[in-house]
Sequence to fold (328 residues):
Amino acid sequence: MKIPALISCVTLLLHPLAMFAQTESTQPGATRIAQWKDDKKSPFMLMFDDACPSQVVNAVPELKKRGMAGTFYNFPAAGHYQGNKAFWETTVPAIPGVAYGNHTISHKGFPTLENAEKEIGDANAVIMRLFPGKSPRLVSYADPGGVKNAISGAQIDAVLAKNNLVRRPEFGGHGGGIAYHTAADVLAAADRGISNGTPEYIIFHGVGGDWLVFPLPEFIQLLDGLEARRNSLWIADTISVHKYETARAKAQVKFKQDGPDQIRVLLTADVNLALYDQPLTLITKVPADWKKCQVTQGTSRATAAIDNGEARYEAVPGTTMIVLTPVR
Ligand SMILES: [Zn+2]
Fold:
């Protein structure tokens, strides 16, 4: 009795996928990967460039009030950044959901490769200091606008890759005060995103002041409108959306129901898991008599609510089995 058990155990270790059979998608155990986090229809990203003073007095307080995520692309050599240094370096990093992107140190373009390495590397060092944690990690990058570079695009790309930087989506067509002037314009874009399941975003400079101004009353109306769409929108920082989208595109899920009281799920993704560490949302059909379920993956344990016969939960891609058991 012991030897076959040992063999089957070894087989299982060597071939963790071998024991899984895909079942009909309506049967208990059937699992799908949500297109976007929490099974929302689409992501929406709020980005803020250049550490404009009006962001200090207008944008950040309104975001904080609503617990809304945003990404700030500061360039720390700016005089107006230095004038609000404590705000940018202490107050803002403590706000949940806020992230910083790399926008170089001085926003002057790159006369030489050495200069690019310093401008980009030093800006990354500031972000790592203000948001300590995992290293290496992916950070969003925004090219400084309106500047000339004396080095090639390929050279810049190589510096970005070396620093684990991912270029954000295009500025063109998405600038506050340029492409978008009213809350209604931006909310129409958000609604298109919801219909199409695709990300939408706006990139601000001035909010109620400074340059490329998006009026404050419109900004408030926009945030209220986004808030009203929170059941459909995943309002997130730029790099989280990139990580989810990339891992999701390369992810696979396998599942198996083991009797009435256990479902096992294996989520894999063909990406560098050290950098693409954003959990993905899974939705698993469970037996009709499960009222809630416990989701265990390695040492992490969570309780998932069951809605319409489905459990929704987060899991990290990799080789660690996810086990669902009922809480009756
Ligand atoms: Zn800029």
